[in-house]
Specification:
heterodimer; A: 453 residues; mainly alpha; Formate dehydrogenase/DMSO reductase fold; 16 helices; B: 185 residues; alpha+beta; Alpha-Beta Plaits; 4-stranded antiparallel β-sheet; 4 strands; 46% helix; 14% strand
C-alpha cells in the first residue's frame, strides 16, 4: 500500500472529502437503521436460501439419484454451479492483490466489497462438491490425517485432491486478507461508537489497533506479501479446477488451453459480478462519490480485456480442434455449435463475446443502466460457458449408442436458487454490518491535506 | 520487528503533538528527525506514504519470515506426499510411479502459500501485540479517524521544550501536551 498512496492529481473520490468525512460517509450507513428495500431484499434472498436448504437436505437424505444425471452425463448441473461460483470468487483477489501489485489506486473503493464477494462465492462453490460426495458427513476423508483405515492416505496424484487443497487454501488466504484489511476500519468503528454491541464486537476484533505507524509500516509489508502470494494462488486455483477436466480423456476437455481459458473466464465472470453488485450498492447506499463513473469505467475496460481473452480462447479451442485431424475432437466442437444443446453455446457466445463489445463506447460506460444490463448478460453467459463445457462435451461421447440428453431436475434447480439465496443473504448482511468501503485505504488516496504536486 | 520504544517500566516523558493535515505531520516528523529528536511513534488513521522515511524506519524483516516458513511448508509437503504415496502405503493408481513428483507440485504449491501467508500474519500480529479483545491505548482522540499524533520522547537535559514547541507550531500543531509514560500506554 505504501507506494499506492502517492499523491495524485485527478481525484479518485469526488466531493473533495476530508478523512473525517470518509469515516462519516461509510460508517453512517451502518449506524442508520436498514432501509425498507434492504428488508425486502433480505426476505427474498433468505426465502431462496430456505428453498435451497430444503432441497439440499432432501438430496442428502435421498441420494444424488435425485439429479438428472445418467450414465453418459455423469457431471452436469452440480459441477457447472461449482465452477461458476469459484469463477466469481476470483474477482476479489484480482482487485485486492493483482491491481494492488499493479498500483491501481482506484481499487481502494471496491476492494472490500469484492473481497467479501469472493469469500461468499467460495462458500457457495464449496457446497457443491460436498453434496456431490453423496455422503457429506465423510468430507473429512479428504484431509490427510492418520486414521484407522490403514492409515489410508489420500491420492495426491488426483486433480480432485489438488482441487480440495486449492480451494481450501484460497478460502483461508482470502479470508485472512480480508480480515487484515478490516482491522484498521474496525478500530475506526470502535472509536466512533459510544457503546453497544457493535462497539464490543468491533473492539474485540480490532485487536487493540491504535494507529501506530510502526504497526502500519509492518502491516503494509504483510499486505504486500499477501498480495504477492495471493496473485499466483488465484491463478493456481482455477488452473487446478480446469485440470479436473483437462486430465481426463474427454474430447473438448483434454486440451492444454484449458488452464488459461478457465483463469481468464473466472476473472471475466468475477469482475462482471463485482460490477453488478457495486452498481446496486452505489445507488442504494449512496456511494456515488466513492464508486464513481471512473471506477465503473475502469472495471468495464477490464471486462473488455478479459472478455477478449475469453473470446480468444473460444476461437483457439475451435481452430485447434478443427486442425487436430481427430474426428472425436472435431465432432465435440461441431456438436457444441450445431448439436441439440447449441442454444446454450450461442447464449454463451452472444453474452460473452458480443455484449462486452458495447463497452468500447464511452457513452455506454457512463450509462449505468446499460452497464448493469451488460454485466447481467455476462453473468448469464459465463454460467452457460460452464454448462457448455461440461454437459455438451459429455452428452455425445465416443459411442453413438451412448448418446443422450440432460435435463436438470427441480431439486437441482432449487439448489442453484438456494446458492444464489446464500450468496445474496450473506452479501446483504455484509453491507449492513461491515464497512463496505475500505475506509483507511480510501483516506490514503484523498487529495485533502496533501501538498499539491 | 521494531523495538517498542514506549515501555511501561521506566519513568519517561513524552511530548504529544496533534495535527489535522497529512502534510503537517509529514513535515513535522521530518523536522523532528532532522533535529535528532527521538520519535517514539506516530499515530495515523491510515498508512501515510513517505512517513516511514520521515521517521527513519528500517525495512521490515517480515519478508524473511514469509520466505523461510514458505520454504519450510513446501519442503514438509514434498516429504509428506512422498512418504504417504511411496513409503507408508503405496497404491497403484493407473500404473503411475509411486514417487510421482510432478503430480505432487500443485498441493505443494498450495501448502507453501498457506504456510507463508499464515505464518507472516501470525508473526506480525504477535510482534505488534495485536491480539483479539486487547484494549486499545489511544495517543489522542481521533487518531483512527481524522487526526495525526506525533509522539516525541524528551530524552535528556538538552531537550529544549520551547524550541521544539515553536518548530511544531510552525507546522500548525492543533494540540500540544507533555505526558509521563503511564498516561500514554
Amino acid at each position: 500500500m505504501a507506494s499506492v498512496h502517492a499523491t495524485i492529481s485527478e481525484p479518485l473520490i469526488l466531493g473533495d472529502k476530508s478523512p473525517g468525512q470518509v469515516t462519516d460517509d461509510v460508517c453512517s450507513s451502518l449506524e442508520r437503521g436498514p432501509h425498507v428495500s434492504w428488508w425486502i431484499a433480505l426476505t427474498v434472498s433468505s426465502s431462496m436460501l430456505l428453498l435451497g436448504l430444503v432441497a439440499v437436505v432432501y438430496q442428502v437424505l435421498t441420494g444424488i439419484g435425485t439429479w438428472g444425471l445418467n450414465n453418459t452425463v455423469g457431471w452436469a448441473f452440480d459441477i457447472t454451479n461449482f465452477v461458476f461460483w469459484i469463477g466469481i470468487g476470483h474477482a476479489g483477489t484480482l482487485i485486492s492483490a493483482v491491481l494492488f501489485l499493479f498500483r491501481q489506486k482506484w481499487r481502494t473503493s471496491v476492494n472490500r466489497a469484492a473481497e467479501a464477494m469472493t469469500i461468499i462465492a467460495v462458500i457457495c462453490a464449496g457446497i457443491y462438491p460436498l453434496i456431490h460426495m453423496g455422503r457429506p458427513w465423510l468430507a473429512h476423508w479428504m484431509m490427510p490425517y492418520p486414521n484407522t483405515r490403514g492409515p489410508l492416505w489420500i491420492n495426491f496424484r488426483s486433480p480432485l485432491v489438488w482441487d480440495f487443497f486449492a480451494i481450501s487454501t484460497y478460502f483461508t488466504i482470502s479470508f485472512v486478507f480480508w480480515y487484515l484489511g478490516l482491522v484498521p476500519d474496525l478500530a475506526t468503528l470502535r472509536d466512533r461508537l459510544a457503546r453497544g454491541w457493535r462497539k464490543t464486537v468491533a473492539g474485540f476484533l480490532s485487536l487493540g489497533w491504535n494507529g501506530s505507524f510502526r504497526t502500519w509500516f509492518h502491516y503494509e509489508t504483510v499486505y504486500l506479501l499477501l498480495a504477492g502470494l495471493a496473485t499466483p494462488l488465484v491463478i493456481s486455483v482455477h488452473t487446478i479446477v480446469s485440470w479436473d477436466f483437462a486430465t481426463s480423456v474427454i474430447p473438448g476437455w483434454h486440451t492444454t488451453i484449458l488452464p488459461p481459458y478457465f483463469v481468464a473466464g473466472a476473472i471475466f465472470s468475477g469482475m462482471s459480478m463485482v460490477l453488478t453488485l457495486m452498481l446496486i450498492a452505489r445507488k442504494t447506499m449512496r456511494l456515488e462519490d466513492y464508486i464513481t463513473e471512473r471506477h465503473v469505467g475502469a472495471m468495464c475496460k477490464l471486462l473488455i480485456a478479459t472478455g477478449g481473452m475469453v473470446t480468444m480462447a473460444y476461437a483457439t479451442e475451435f481452430v485447434t480442434a478443427m486442425y487436430s485431424n481427430n474426428q472425436y475432437e472435431q465432432f465435440a466442437f461441431i456438436n457444441r455449435a450445431k448439436g441439440p444443446l447449441c442454444w446454450a453455446y450461442w447464449i454463451m457466445v452472444s453474452c460473452n463475446v458480443l455484449s462486452p463489445q458495447l463497452l468500447w463506447f464511452k457513452w455506454v460506460r457512463s450509462n449505468m443502466a446499460i452497464v448493469f444490463a451488460v454485466t447481467i448478460l455476462i453473468n448469464i453467459g459465463m454460467w452457460f460457458e460452464r454448462f457448455v463445457i461440461i454437459v455438451t462435451s459429455l452428452h455425445r461421447d465416443y459411442l453413438p449408442s451412448n448418446w443422450t440428453g440432460y435435463v436438470p431436475t427441480s431439486i437441482e434447480i432449487a439448489t442453484l436458487v438456494g446458492s444464489f439465496g446464500l450468496f445474496l443473504t450473506l452479501f446483504l448482511l455484509f453491507c449492513r454490518f461491515v464497512p463496505v468501503i475500505a475506509i483507511a485505504e480510501v483516506k490514503g488516496v484523498l487529495n485533502h491535506g496533501k501538498k499539491p504536486h | 520487528m521494531a523495538k517498542n520504544l514506549i515501555s511501561r517500566d521506566d519513568n519517561r516523558r513524552f511530548l504529544l503533538a496533534v495535527f489535522e493535515r497529512e502534510e503537517d505531520i509529514l513535515g513535522a516528523t521530518n523536522a523532528a528527525r532532522e533535529r535528532g529528536l527521538v520519535i517514539a511513534d506516530v499515530y495515523t488513521p491510515y498508512a501515510i506514504h513517505g512517513l516511514d522515511k520521515a521517521m527513519g524506519l528500517r525495512p521490515s524483516r517480515l519478508p524473511w519470515v514469509c520466505f523461510a516458513l514458505g520454504l519450510a511448508g513446501a519442503s514438509f509437503k514434498v516429504w509428506f506426499e512422498f512418504w504417504t504415496s511411496a513409503t507408508d502405503w503405496p497404491i497403484n493408481v493407473g500404473g503411475k510411479p509411486w514417487n510421482s513428483l510432478p503430480a505432487f507440485v500443485p498441493v505443494t504449491f498450495e501448502v507453501m502459500v498457506l504456510f507463508a501467508a499464515l505464518s507472516t500474519v501470525a508473526v506480525f500480529l504477535v510482534g505488534r501485540r495485536l491480539l483479539p479483545g486487547k484494549r486499545p491505548r489511544l495517543a489522542a482522540s481521533g487518531v483512527t479517524d481524522n487526526r495525526f499524533a506525533l509522539v516525541i520522547e524528551e530524552t535528556d537535559a538538552t531537550f529544549d521544550l520551547g524550541e521544539v514547541s515553536a518548530m511544531l507550531r510552525s507546522f500548525g500543531v492543533s494540540h500540544l501536551e507533555e505526558r509521563v509514560d503511564q498516561d500514554l500506554l
